[in-house]
Design goal:
CATH superfamily of the largest domain: lambda repressor-like DNA-binding domains
Number of domains: 2
CATH architecture of the largest domain: Orthogonal Bundle
Structural class: mainly alpha
CATH class of the largest domain: Mainly Alpha
Distance between the termini: 29 Å
Helix content: over 70%
Strand content: under 5%
Radius of gyration: 15 Å
Number of strands: 0
Order of helices and strands: HHHHHHHH
């Protein structure tokens, strides 16, 4: 697999993890809903391989996930979501990680972004301590 493909798959995998977490289903439930094995779906989120078009269409049909966002990072996760807030959250997290010299895997970064975005949607303030706790949790 070419380096560019690996980067693309990692980015898509992170967005898959974010959208799945935002929807509130497990990897196994998402795999079943889109007609793939749990192992296959896990490899999509890990960025090990690309997700088939058929699975993307099923994800869009079932959960209204924006396929262009999954593939390219454009538009929104689902209709009516605050894409600008999501970008601010991702930028803030990346600045925190770089400033603290912390490296984490893309799927774990996606899980933190999803939790932070969920807090935003629910109107809960996220503190630096919250972010620190989430980062420490995924590092274990």
């Amino acid at each position: 697999m070419a380096h560019e493909d690996a980067d693309l798959f990692a980015e898509i995998g992170a967005r898959l993890a974010i959208s799945r977490s935002e929807i509130g289903v497990s990897q196994a439930a998402m795999a079943e809903a889109i007609g793939v094995s749990h192992r296959a779906y896990h490899s999509y989120e890990k960025g090990k391989r690309g997700i088939p078009v058929e699975a993307l269409v099923k994800m869009h049909s079932r959960y209204e996930v924006d396929v262009s966002w999954l593939l390219l990072g454009t538009n929104s996760i689902r209709a009516g979501h605050d894409f600008e807030a999501l970008k601010r959250i991702e930028t803030s997290l990346d600045q925190y990680l770089v400033g603290a010299g912390i490296g984490i895997k893309s799927e774990k970064r996606g899980a933190i972004v999803a939790r932070w975005y969920e807090s935003h949607v629910k109107g809960r303030e996220v503190t630096d301590d919250d972010v620190h706790t989430w980062v420490e949790f995924v590092r274990e």
